[in-house]
Each structure stands twice: as C-alpha cells, then as structure tokens.
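I have been asked to look over a protein record a colleague put together. Thanks in advance; the entry in question is below.
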Amino acid sequence: MEISNRIEGDTLVLSLNGRLDAASATTLDRDWLLDGQRHVLVDLGECNFVSSAGLRIFLRLKREATAKGASLTLVNVGAAVNEVLDLTGLNKLLSVRRKAREISIDGLELLSAGVCGQCFRLDPETIVKLYNEGVAPDVAEQEKEFARAALVAGIPTALSYEVVTCGNRTGVVYEMLDAELFSAIIRREPDGVDRHGPRLAQIARNIHSKSGDPAVFPDLKVRLRGYIEGVRGLFADEDIAHLAARLETIPDADTLVHFDLHTSNIMIRAGEAVIIDMGDLSRGHYFFDIGVIAMIYGYEESGSCEFATRIPNSTGRALYEKFIAAYFADRPVAEFEFFRRNEAFLASLRLIQAVTFLPLAKDILVAKIRDVFLPLIRAEGGLV
C-alpha cells in the first residue's frame, strides 16, 4: 500500500494505491489532519481491496475529522470496495462517491464551449458538460449535487445524472433539453432588450425568492473571504485590505445565489426559463448575483459580454440598464443606491474567484481586475 497526500486549499487529499489490509492499515493509522483543513478526501481510485481493519481506520479518520470540524469523503470508490461498504452498512455512516464512468468524446457533437469547459451531445437524450483540464475533479461532483438540490428547492434546472471522466477531465451528464440559449435569442433579436432585460430580472428574482439550506449550500461570503485572500501577492496589499473590508459591508443573507448568472447559463424551453451550470450555487445576498451580471454586461471596456455570451458588448450594456431598472423597480431606493455605490467591487468578485478556479486563465483575469476594475473600486471607496 502506497499513500500520498497533498493539500488543495482547505482540503487534504489522501490517495491510496494497493490493498488496504491489516498489514497496510497501520501505515494509514496516523493523525493526518492539520489546522485549517475543512475537508478530507480519501481517494480510492487505485485501491481495489479494503479489509475490516481498513474500514475501522476510515471510521477513526471520520471521528478525527468531525472532532476538528472537518468532513471526510471517500472518493473514486470502485465496485469491489463499494460492495464491502454496502454490505457492512458503512455507506450509511461515511460519505461515499463512486468511481466515475470513463467516456470518450471522439466523434461527439460539440454543442458549446466556454472558459470553464465544453458541452457535447452524448446521445439523443443526454449531454455532458466537461470541465477543462486543471479544474479540480470535485467541482463536477459539487455541481451535480447542487443541481439536484436546486431542483428540490424549486429552481427550474436540467436533470443531472452522473459524474464522468474523460482522460484528465471530469464532467456531469445532464438531460438533453429541447431548448435554446437565452443568449442566442438575444443575438437573434438585439432590438428586443426592452423585453430581454425585464425577463432576465424576473429569472434572477425567482432564484432570489428561495432560501438556501445551510446543510447543503455554502455561505458565499465565507468563500469570498478565502478567494480575496487567495489573490494576495497578485495585487497590492492595500488593495487586498480594501477588498476584504468592502466585502464585510455587504449584508448577510440566506438567499440562494447562482453566482454565474448570465444569459448563456439560461435556456428557454417552451417559453420557460431553465437555469443551468449550478456549480457555484450558494447562500448570500442577492447583490452578489447582480454583481456578476454587472461584470458581464455593464462594463463594455472589459469585453466580458462578447466573450461569455457572444452578444455584442454595446447590446449587453443596453440589456444591463433594462435589467437593473426592472430588478430594482419595486425594491427600496436605499438598496439600489447601495448597489450602485458598490457596483465595480461586486462586479470584480466573480473574476477574483475565477483566478483560483481557472488557473489556465489566471494572467488574463488578473490583468482585467488590475486594469479595469481596481481603479473603479478605489474610486468607489474614495481612495483616489
């Protein structure tokens, strides 16, 4: 039995290679968890046998993690090990993720592509969303779980089936929707922003009418604190301090927020909206979602609208103004004024998150934050 370990943010990953029997279990039986780690993943992708001694070590690791406020999950569990967990009932006590099915995209129809990954048609009834290489494998598992939880919470979304792998990439299999991207509709009808803006506002308000279950959905403000800290060294220390302080001024809330809400993550089926790409669904103030929409459509100089949606940037700006007017139409004036005072800051947060989420696009993202948003954020905060 060979055991390797690595740290990924606040997650400890233990990878086991070989048989976990009475002799090798002693190697795993040690205190692995360090302060500050919130999750432990035990990767069993290369482990095809676990004895009763190994099972008891898993239980001890779970007790240790729980005592320190962390979670423990067995991942890439193959059929043989999963059968043992099922027979002993430990799959009811331990969080278990089955080993993903391997697929090939050779010959598959490419449906769409973005900065995070691509979508392919698997068969007449299903599609697969494949994340690009470099995106952590657990992101796909999280998206599948959030998509299911969103459906239960009352958000119209595509049915998710399973997590799959394709070489070094992971993805989620979804139902094939007989639907059209909202972005495609806007591109075809650019003069209809008077209708499209209010429609986007209604879709956003439907999401924001739901409360998120704390047992399922993470607190977005907590995550954003980590993302801001994660870009330390890429920007001046005074800018990092200013970003962190501004974040604390955003009110706390348990509202569901998508945190990647834009017209290329909305499909229209039989006149009804279906929300997709649920990997960042969280709890927080609706300001965070409006900030994402501002980042994509509200700043023509960033080029984000055309990049993310293929809608011309000028059309996106017109759409944004109609959206803002409709979204805040019957909300307190003070909320609208607060948003406008923090617009550039809120718009920057998705990009800051993406710096750590999309390492291959790091240089482009850092430049956009530095050159477009930080000067505006400083001006908002009265620093210039």
In short: The two ends are 59 Å apart (CA to CA).
